[in-house]
Amino acid sequence: xxxxxxxxxxxxxxxxxxxxxxxxxxxxxxxxxxxxxxxxxxxxxxxxxxxxxxxxxxxxxxxxxxxxxxxxxxxxxxxxxxxxxxxxxxxxxxxxxxxxxxxxxxxxxxxxxxxxxxxxxxxxxxxxxxxxxxxxxxxxxxxxxxxxxxxxxxxxxxxxxxxxxxxxxxxxxxxxxxxxxxxxxxxxxxxxxxxxxxxxxxxx
Length: 204
Prior knowledge:
Elements: H1 3-14, H2 20-32, H3 34-56, H4 62-70, H5 80-87, H6 89-111, E1 116-119, E2 126-128, E3 131-134, E4 139-141, E5 144-147, E6 150-153, E7 156-158, E8 161-164, E9 167-170, E10 175-176, E11 180-183, H7 186-203
Parallel strand pairs: 3-6, 4-7, 5-8, 6-9, 7-10, 8-11
Antiparallel strand pairs: 1-5, 2-3
């Protein structure tokens, strides 16, 4: 039984308007839920106080009655979005992770302008300023990634080639055995970063 339903049944229970099955369900919930049990005790005390006032002090001033009514515990209202988050914790965690990744990626997109070269066979690569060159007759064994620079391929790349925020020139003598990705847009770059994070986690 959910707490919202239990709270609504408490009033009917005190008015003796519940069936036996509903009474049993409410009592079972109260045994397992501390918050509802405390709220039920408060309602019980308030109900006894009101009964006492109605039977022993019928001439109580209106102001006193209003003060007592204003002191009654209010039923807790749960925000709809909070209930949805509690019912879908995995989706919520994934959404928060993606939002954090997007914000951090966008912030780094404008700041990160340094040339970055990644690969397993970089001794075959020539770097001149912001230009990465795979000379003719040279062969890269594995993937090659170039960020924030120009890429010129004259030799062989035996893997995937990824160029991020840069330009790519591939000579007629060049051979790339894998896929070629040229990522120039911020959203493509963010997606590339996110998929790389998930790939790294999967292979650990």
